[in-house]
Amino acid sequence: xxxxxxxxxxxxxxxxxxxxxxxxxxxxxxxxxxxxxxxxxxxxxxxxxxxxxxxxxxxxxxxxxxxxxxxxxxxxxxxxxxxxxxxxxxxxxxxxxxxxxxxxxxxxxxxxxxxxxxxxxxxxxxxxxxxxxxxxxxxxxxxxxxxxxxxxxxxxxxxxxxxxxxxxxxxxxxxxxxxxxxxxxxxxxxxxxxxxxxxxxxxxxxxxxxxxxxxxxxxxxxxxxxxxxxxxxxxxxxxxxxxxxxxxxxxxxxxxxxxxxxxxxxxxxxxxxxxxxxxxxxxxxxxxxxxxxxxxxxxxxxxxxxxxxxxxxxxxxxxxxxxxxxxxxxxxxxxxxxxxxxxxxxxxxxxxxxxxxxxxxxxxxxxxxxxxxxxxxxxxxxxxxxxxxxxxxxxxxxxxxxxxxxxxxxxxxxxxxxxxxxxxxxxxxxxxxxxxxxxxxxxxxxxxxxxxxxxxxxxxxxxxxxxxxxxxxxxxxxxxxxxxxxxxxxxxxxxxxxxxxxxxxxxxxxxxxxxxxxxxxxxxxxxxxxxxxxxxxxxxxxxxxxxxxxxxxxxxxxxxxxxxxxxxxxxxxxxxxxxxxxxxxxxxxxxxxxxxxxxxxxxxxxxxxxxxxxxxxxxxxxxxxxxxxxxxxxxxxxxxxxxxxxxxxxxxxxxxxxxxxxxxxxxxxxxxxxxxxxxxxxxxxxxxxxxxxxxxxxxxxxxxxxxxxxxxxxxxxxxxxxxxxxxxxxxxxxxxxxxxxxxxxxxxxxxxxxxxxxxxxxxxxxxxxxxxxxxxxxxxxxxxxxxxxxxxxxxxxxxxxxxxxxxxxxxxxxxxxxxxxxxxxxxxxxxxxxxxxxxxxxxxxxxxxxxxxxxxxxxxxxxxxxxxxxxxxxxxxxxxxxxxxxxxxxxxxxxxxxxxxxxxxxxxxxxxxxxxxxxxxxxxxxxxxxxxxxxxxxxxxxxxxxxxxxxxxxxxxxxxxxxxxxxxxxxxxxxxxxxxxxxxxxxxxxxxxxxxxxxxxxxxxxxxxxxxxxxxxxxxxxxxxxxxxxxxxxxxxxxxxxxxxxxxxxxxxxxxxxxxxxxxxxxxxxxxxxxxxxxxxxxxxxxxxxxxxxxxxxxxxxxxxxxxxxxxxxxxxxxxxxxxxxxxxxxxxxxxxxxxxxxxxxxxxxxxxxxxxxxxxxxxxxxxxxxxxxxxxxxxxxxxxxxxxxxxxxxxxxxxxxxxxxxxxxxxxxxxxxxxxxxxxxxxxxxxxxxxxxxxxxxxxxxxxxxxxxxxxxxxxxxxxxxxxxxxxxxxxxxxxxxxxxxxxxxxxxxxxxxxxxxxxxxxxxxxxxxxxxxxxxxxxxxxxxxxxxxxxxxxxxxxxxxxxxxxxxxxxxxxx
Length: 1361
Prior knowledge:
disordered C terminus
């Protein structure tokens, strides 16, 4: 029998007729009662249904049936479902049904169904309904073969470039404040397409970004949840069921002090907007929000009625419309006959320049472009629909989409209608829809294609027709999520209701009474506040259930009798979600559960013989042991530490096995994976650390892979908490499936000594992620044979001495490349990786390494858009080594002229195997000594693996060695915390225990064992030269980005906020040599030679500009002071500037001079490209200690020169791209403040003033300015740690001044949280002593353990111009 078992047009007719024929020819002992004794009735029923099916099929092609025909067709479809349900129940009676229910009532029910069928046939003949089927419409019959696919490159987009450039220009105005821009235009004009193109162009310049769909019905919870899932990465949704306010709090917290870009597509009401905009922080980080809307009123309200922020999108011009239409119909080369040209002009005139309408009509004609009769038919259909000229563009678009929908073949129409089960704006995975369509019976296998593969062809065809649209695309161009255009959704929702195909009920809206039986039911509780369990709905005939809401509102599973598809997204406070009743759902084919509640499954699932897909994204009490015995199970995904039955190997038909836990399953189970010969997708993981049993399991896993010849995807992804101990899998397998498209063997478990030979044989591979011990240029050539590779991640353990060269024409379609190696030496020849868009490089800085050939030929990557760099530090590396490596790296990157985004971060150590001769000689000597002392009988090769460890954990004390903290515990009831350290040198046995008192002072250090190696060599810091790329080589763009001239730019300077650091020696920054100091005190360049580049900040005192010296190109900061100042003030400022020019210290912003231009005072200062630390959080204590140390050095220097700052705060602490922190805004600001407030004791910002400075009654009115600076410093450091002002979350530093001053003077000083280290808590306690006489000096604080630990030295400041 051809065609699917179920369809929207024919209901269950095909399936039902097949079952009836089978019953009539079956032996009597195979047919239960009462069906066996009623075969005569079944025969009559079959004859009537055969005739009815013929009439129904003919009427299904009628384009616009009248009400009588529609009513009859609905009645027939309903009857087909009822009869099939009756047969299924009789063939598979429930265990608790009584004998009586199987006899007389069953016979009566059958008689009723036979009579209904006869009556239905008579009504068709009586009213002569067949006359309406005499002229069937044209239908484009879709095939099962490959369909042209729209990808994420948008190569066929027309007429959008100018709009994209203009919109980016509007987003790129010089505004540090949050900016909202709207795209407004009629439906189908291309607003979403334009927004997507802009989003892809600029998304890399923002720290957080999201592209979400809105809906016409307000659904704020879903909208906020989608934003959160994208800005948090990996599309991880927040826990279900959270109140809107909690979602707002989550969103605000995550976006604080971050630059974000949010696109809200299809906004049609302002209720959701008012809530969403309140959740997005107003900041000065150049954040942007872009919305698309059909309504001008919505656009105006979102943009605060600023018409300049609204981009009005107009329909395409005639030429662009023709280009789009003909490209879709014929391809890029086409010649038209005169008649086709006339028809096309009339069709295009109907489209009105709307791209979506043009694509919809072109998709009808594309499969038969030379069929003149079809063209004429489409033209006439349009004329009939648009014979009235007063239709709005929205109604016209709906009619055109309706025409396109009605021209679909039955199988595509049914698949598309199924999406009406989900809410408007819903985004979905292709794989999910494919499985659900198959489970519903919409798909029938054909030669050489199973149901899933046929369903994928249907999905692709709907994409090509423009009825399903890509929503989210990966870096490789692969579409991950899809959605529906709002007009398409309206059309299929209307058609679904008319044909009683599905019913969607949202309990936040008014519910109309249901007059017909529900076959597919979608229950949603958009507002959990008023949620109640649904009533007055008969659930027994429901075949598919999609439920989203509170567990208390979930109907009892036992009420469903013929359920085939079960999709639950439930949440609540209950301990358990009891689904033990699902074993009664004999017809169940698809089940997906997502919940924050532990799920209880039945003890046995053998009663589900048709189950094809089981996906549970929740905790599970246990998995039934017979789950692997289900005969039709194809897809199994059960998350958590689940032990599957030992019979898993017998489930040979399984195609998908996700989240297979290696640690929880036996080694025998893992070996049996090799028997699952039909497996397509395998995803394994392990939450435990490496052990001997796990090593054996890992060997079994890798060895089993070569037996699975149909695999398309393999992922081995240990959880991040696993230790970095690798297992060599080089000999565990000799080949893998030639059909493999995705291979991810991720660190830190599986490693290959060399690139396996069989990698080059995987010609279909598109994603490869693998760990290698060694990697050479020859290996590059082997991987380059993979012509379909789009994503490549290589983790190389041993730094290579040779340069890795990527040759010409290698990797023709690669779009993402990640390369991690201890030492970076790679080169790109011209035309290598021609489509590469993203490059991710991770490496370590080593002591004394030559970095000249680190990265060559970057300019040859013509399509490269973004580079991400991560620089770690080897144990022997100094801060000067890291700075040198960073400088060389940025010099190499700066050669690329088209780069949109460059992101560089300093992180901890990337694990690597040491193999440099000098290091191995030293280690080998130690090994030999240890081996001899232990009477070793034989010599064996030793490879020392340095496990991943954050540099933040490294400490040292008075013995001069480097230490790593590995544990901490409280002793003596928590009064004296004890920390445990190991020496960082490989195999060194030395350990120490450090006991710290409550105030952060070390009270006792106990050493255990002795060091078996020399101390690490210490190096003097290197000076940056004036042209060093580490400061200004990339033009001061956001996170070190560069850009092609003339390209619209959204970047603004942003300080790095990376919470990572590295270790080195604790020596004070050196002061420039006398010659350099003398040079610094030279006269500043003439003001006329300085050109203003852009404004970088403003405050109460003036505006700061970034200026460039025309002769040398050097950058400065020019502060233009507000107001007119009398001569006394001018002389005082001039004297202060003269003093400040003599201040030569790496931690103090240098003052070059002052200009008096027409009464306007302008001060030339050193330019710090990272901006201030105000509003940023530094949660990593080592990095924060480095910042505190640098500031303390500067304060100590100023205090030695008898200079009191009086206004230390985060906004006066500046940072540059080399992470050098300097003190700014003293001296001149103090003078200006004194002119405004004669009381010298109140100079500065009140929020950071010390208690004795505010309350003059303290200390008898005396004020120690040096101690006041220490208080301000301590409060600033604590604010950087917390990410907020320390005196209460609700108080703030800009609020009620009276309350603020009372809090400073009379409340206890703020403290770090208990999760902070004792050293940091003690350090802050010292700084924030209420009694100023108890506060240490800056010099004394430099000896505190928090800042005295070995850390990288800040570099000395660059020489003068």
